[in-house]
Amino acid sequence: MKYILLLFTVISLFSTNGTAQNFKNIVAFGDSFTDNGHIDGHGFNRDTNGRVWVEYLAEMINCQQVDNRAWGGARTDEGHYLGFDWSGFNWQADKYDMISNPEETLITVWIGVNDYWDNKDDPSNSVRNIKTGLNKLIEKGGKHFVVFNNFDLTLSLGYGPDTDYHSLVPEVRKLTKRFNAELYTMLYNQDTGLAQSHPEVKLYFVDIYSFMNDLVSNNKFNNKPWKGTYTFPDPKEYLWYDEWHPMTSCHKLIGELVFKEITN
Q1: How large a percentage of the chain has pLDDT more than 70?
Q2: Are residues 29 and 93 in contact, defined by beta-carbon separation less than 8 angstroms?
Q3: Is 179 helix (H, G, I), strand (E, B) or coil?
Q4: Is 106 helix (H, G, I), strand (E, B) or coil?
Q5: What structural domains and CATH numbers belong to the chain?
Q6: 20 to 30 A Cα–Cα from 143, which one of 87, 110, 165, 194?
Q7: Does pTM surpass 0.85?
Q8: What tens digit of pLDDT does each residue of 104-156 get?
């Protein structure tokens, strides 16, 4: 009997460590890297050939309730990169009301690249907007947050040598690094960081910048987009679904990356 009890204890501990937190609800905010179309009444398009990362994450943690509020093209303020004044992160935060148990709700935020992808905006403004939006969600009861930095979008085919945007590569790379550095400082500065100001909140930081750099440098992917079909090619051959967005195989890897972060 002692051995049975010991085995049960070990299994229980392993299960607890493997899930870290019993999240029954995920609320996702963001842009086209998270947008899953109109399935949940939000979003424009599913810009990949299958599931997006948050759907894979939900499956990994056995979470049945996913409220995906991301909109393709969303900026960090209230608006959209095409110019209309809705769909942005702060607009998304304003439209949200916490109706689930905050202790069982994981809020995810991946936003920013639509502000500066064309070298027109200051990423410092983007970080201030994200801080404002996060504070709104905290005021509404948010307790557990996944926050992404941004990957180097110039890795994508949209900035390739034959594109209209290739000349922007050096500046956009600099802006991405600035954004990421200032975002991290906003979250974790010892005196003024969000984590310091809200010790009741748990932040999970996802370094998608390093992840995508490693993925591209360690593989030789096709320099053409897959485009326009929901079939599943060899993930070792294709990384990009279109000029800007990764394949669902990459989204699965991103889901695994987030899973590791929230279960550590």
Answers
A1: 89
A2: yes
A3: helix
A4: strand
A5: 27-263 (3.40.50.1110)
A6: 87
A7: yes
A8: 999 999 999 999 999 999 999 999 999 999 999 999 999 999 999 999 999 99
Name the amino acid, one letter, at 149: N
* Burial (CB count within 10 angstroms: exposed 0-12, middle 13-18, buried 19+), residue 35: buried
Q: What pLDDT, on the 0 to 100 scale, is given for residue 234?
A: 81
Residue in this structure with the two tokens 């897959």, named with its chain if needed: 226
How far apart CA 30 and CA 189 sit, in angstroms, is 23
Alpha carbons within 13 A on the beta-carbon side of 226: 24
Six token digits for residue 153: 């979008």
Considering just the CA atoms, what is the radius of gyration of the chain in Å? 19
C-alpha angle 202-203-209 in degrees, rounded to nearest 5? 165
**Amino acid letter for position 13:** L
